[in-house]
Specification:
With 500 residues, this protein is of the alpha/beta class. It contains 18 helices and 14 strands.
């Protein structure tokens, strides 16, 4: 039996950014989120990246100390009420598993590494929910420590999403070492930013927008500097940017520029973020930009709320994948029903009595044939590749790897080596979930509108026993032959299958 969870009243979102870590805690009451607490730690994780891509001991120590403090606030919260995501620095870091395990222990919750496109989607959601509902398209720009996201959307729906490989830390380290700024250095930084923006400049201008919005620390720091020079400023404008650049170049460094609003920590990466924002204005022809309060962490809260209120964007993504790759919907229905029925019989004994386990098994059942749209030969491998590497809004990279493992392991030899690389609890559950999917696919191989028989499945350790209605297997010799073949496929993995 699958145990359903009660929706938690208090939610928390943690954003492990390349420059700073943020946490927001909110209560869901009367249809809206009320913020209870915010925490922010300037960690500069990306600045501590070694030449070989590993995180330095110093940056990991700073990060773990911050997470220990966050963990105190999260200690008594329900697991389903907390989401922790890592962005560009953790996407790029090599040999990070040890750090992620220590970070999980410090927080008391697992860390999800999200793609740049998923980061862009969540940022847009956070911004859209923080602004009044207005007609027309909106361009959202978010300059982070290691990446810059640009999104065009309408209402709460993002239409075009991009994540570029430039951020305030990487730009500052490359062009403004030691915080030194000159006109020549600044122009070179703008050229670097323009090269990154070149690929989206014409497509984005062709789509167009009615208003531009900036979010997160770098954009807000630039706006605050503009207001240091002009307290009446209500927006970021090209004129305001020019004034900040002029003051910065004349001073030679942020520390000497006299921006009272820019903290010493922010001053280390301010020039890089400013250069990116100046070039965004130039490349996209912006006249002004308003600054939003919402960002990635607020987007996480609303995304979590959607999952808890049956508005999970992942469900829409799964349906979109079915349509895009021409899945046989009737067959997907049959396999899904069989997989869920089998799961219900062994969930308690196999430690799978969890709604998330059921949901991922359902998605895998519905998507197990998407590889057929590429080639019939080895279609399970094609499907696994698509699920691991496609842009799938709402899914983290870890969740996509789980689906890829299930779909890649649903036929032929049971090869689930990649399952060992999944984070807990999926590293332990994946193999058993794949076995259930295999049996569900096998039972529906005839693709018949006639439902399969009522099968009783029991699990005793690594032994599975299938009990069919009396005489059914004699009337269906092909299924009996398939089951015999399945026994052979399972033997190398030390699973045994009995049926009768």
């Amino acid at each position: 039996m699958i145990r359903r969870r009660k929706r938690p009243d208090v939610l928390a979102a943690v954003d492990l950014g390349s420059n700073s870590f943020h946490m927001i805690v909110a209560r869901y009451a009367e249809g809206r989120l009320v913020v209870l607490d915010r925490l922010r730690e300037m960690v500069r994780l990306a600045a501590g990246m070694e030449a070989d891509g590993r995180l330095s001991r110093e940056s990991m120590a700073r990060a773990l100390a911050a997470l220990e403090r966050f963990g105190q606030r999260l200690r008594d919260m329900q697991a389903e009420g907390v989401r922790v995501v890592g962005t560009n620095a953790l996407r790029k870091a090599r040999r990070k598993q040890g750090f992620l395990e220590r970070a999980r222990a410090a927080l008391g919750h697992p860390i999800e590494i999200i793609s740049g496109i998923e980061e862009a989607r969540l940022i847009y959601s956070g911004v859209a929910h923080s602004l009044p509902t207005e007609p027309g398209r909106r361009l959202v720009v978010d300059i982070g420590g290691g990446s810059t996201e640009l999104i065009i959307g309408e209402g709460y729906t993002p239409r075009f999403l991009e994540s570029l490989y430039m951020g305030c830390i990487s730009m500052s380290e490359e062009h403004f070492p030691g915080g030194r700024v000159s006109d020549k250095r600044f122009r070179r930084a703008c050229v670097t930013a323009r090269m990154e923006l070149e690929g989206i400049e014409n497509p984005y201008r062709a789509v167009g927008w009615d208003q531009a919005v900036g979010s997160s620390g770098s954009v807000r720091a630039v706006f605050d500097a503009i207001r240091d020079l002009d307290p009446a400023a209500a927006f970021i404008t090209r004129r305001g940017l020019d004034q900040v650049v002029k003051r910065l170049v004349e001073a030679g460094s942020v520390a000497n520029a006299g921006f009272g609003s820019v903290s010493p920590e922010r001053s280390l990466v301010f020039a890089g973020g400013l250069a990116i924002l100046v070039q965004v204005f130039d490349s996209l022809g912006l006249e002004q930009m308003r600054v939003a309060d919402g960002a990635l962490r607020e987007g996480l809260l609303h995304d979590m709320l959607g999952r808890l209120t049956d508005e999970d964007v992942r469900a829409r993504t799964s349906r979109s994948m079915e349509s895009r790759f021409h899945v046989d919907a009737a067959q997907a229905d049959r396999v899904e029903a069989s997989a869920v029925a089998l799961l219900g019989q062994v969930a308690e004994r196999w430690g799978l009595a969890d709604p998330e386990t059921e949901q991922f098994l359902r998605w895998a059942a519905r998507l197990h044939e998407i590889g057929l749209d590429i080639s019939h030969a080895h279609f399970h491998k094609h499907g696994a590749y698509l699920l691991e590497h496609a842009d799938m809004p709402g899914f983290t990279r870890e969740e996509q790897r789980l689906l890829a493992c299930l779909v890649g392991g649903h036929r032929r030899k049971l090869q689930l080596e990649k399952a060992l690389e999944l984070v807990p609890p999926w590293d332990d559950r994946c193999e058993r979930m794949a076995l259930l999917l295999r049996l569900a696919v096998l039972m529906n191989r005839p693709r018949s509108a006639e439902p399969p028989p009522a099968i009783r499945l029991t699990a005793r350790g690594r032994t599975l026993v299938l009990k069919f209605p009396r005489g059914w297997l004699k009337k269906h010799p092909l299924t009996a032959a398939d089951l015999e073949q399945e026994k052979g496929y399972l033997e190398p993995s030390r699973y045994s299958l009995r049926f009768g």
